[in-house]
UniProtKB/TrEMBL annotation:
Domain of life of the source: Bacteria
Signal peptide, first to last residue: 1-25
Alphabetical UniProt keywords: Signal
One Gene Ontology term, aspect cellular component: cell envelope
Name this protein carries in UniProt: Cystine transport system substrate-binding protein
Organism encoding this protein: Alysiella filiformis DSM 16848
Family as reported in the entry's similarity comment: Belongs to the bacterial solute-binding protein 3 family.
Compartments it resides in: Cell envelope
Domain Solute-binding protein family 3/N-terminal: 77-299
């Protein structure tokens, strides 16, 4: 169980000091960058030195002032909405430190841009509304931005992770290398999920479950033959449970995968272009690959 901070403000900010190194796993003794004119030291103190994402809790602030591109160009502080409760993407580790794949990617991007990040921990239901209302500049929370309604209001950077449907079965299983092959076999699925619908379309025999954990248990116990779910969720499970006796036997093709990126309000094209360039550089220099292997056991930045 991950230990979480007890925050006194409903939307407490976490300031991450991001150094200039590309490798977010390395430590640095470099001094933190100076704060922008729009953020006083009373509201945004310099975080402690150390790893690229050392964090301190700071008071919540009102709406962001100035434009995102101005803060990037001035090497200032950008605010980022994230859940902090969505492992392995954004969560608190055993020491209480905010971390996760999305958090560390954001810090690596900030290091490339020469800015610092103030993470605003917010529940998912109000996150995009908070972005639209100006509570923060960006959202880092595995947002693929696929619905037309969201695309009309927000824009997304170059993706830093890709995910799609995948199938898990017992280790050594060779029958299920395509969806068409699961016809007549038992698939442990939640009835209302997209993955349950996929299993029904493939004419599998549905074994109802409450969630992924129960589905995987039934497969282990041979009470089901397989289960469908998100590929990143499966990778996270296998990373944490290397002796589960399970394996991924099929994943969706590249054309069916969805990419998650940093999300901003419409009208931030110049800022998102700089952020996207930083993400491409992090992929080219191996940083995203290293972070993917750290959190998932695999590079998830490639489609």
């Amino acid at each position: 169980m991950f230990q979480k901070f007890t925050l006194t403000a409903a939307a407490a900010l976490v300031l991450a000091a991001c150094n200039g190194q590309n490798n977010t796993a390395q430590s640095s003794n470099a001094p933190a960058a100076s704060t922008p004119a729009a953020a006083s030291s009373a509201n945004v103190p310099v975080a402690a030195q150390g790893s690229a994402c050392d964090t301190v809790v700071v008071p919540a602030t009102s709406n962001v002032s100035g434009s995102l591109i101005e803060r990037i160009n001035n090497k200032g502080v950008i605010t980022v909405g994230t859940e902090g409760t969505y492992a392995p993407f954004t969560y608190h580790d055993a020491s209480g430190k905010l971390t996760g794949y999305d958090v560390e990617v954001t810090c690596a991007v900030a290091a490339k841009l020469g800015v610092k990040v103030a993470f605003n921990e917010t529940n998912w239901d109000s996150m995009l509304a908070g972005l639209k209302g100006g509570r923060f500049d960006l959202v880092a929370n595995q947002v693929a931005l696929t619905s037309p309604e969201r695309q009309a209001t927000f824009d997304k950077s170059e993706p830093y992770s890709w995910s799609g449907a995948a199938m898990m079965a017992r280790a050594g299983e060779t029958r299920f290398n395509a969806l068409a092959n699961i016809k007549g076999f038992k698939a442990a699925q939640t009835l209302s999920s997209n993955y349950g619908e996929e299993a029904k379309k493939a004419e599998a025999e549905i074994v109802p479950v409450d969630g992924m954990a129960q589905a995987l248990t039934l497969v282990q116990q041979q009470r089901a033959d397989l289960t469908l779910n998100d590929s990143l969720s499966f990778l996270d499970y296998l990373k944490k449970n290397p002796n589960s006796g399970l394996q991924i036997v099929w994943t969706a093709g590249a054309e069916d995968k969805k990419g998650a990126g940093l999300v901003a309000n419409k009208g931030n094209d110049e800022a998102l272009a700089k952020i996207s360039t930083a993400i491409k550089e992090l992929q080219a220099d191996g940083t995203l690959k290293k972070l993917g292997e750290e959190f998932f056991g695999k590079d998830v930045s490639v489609q």
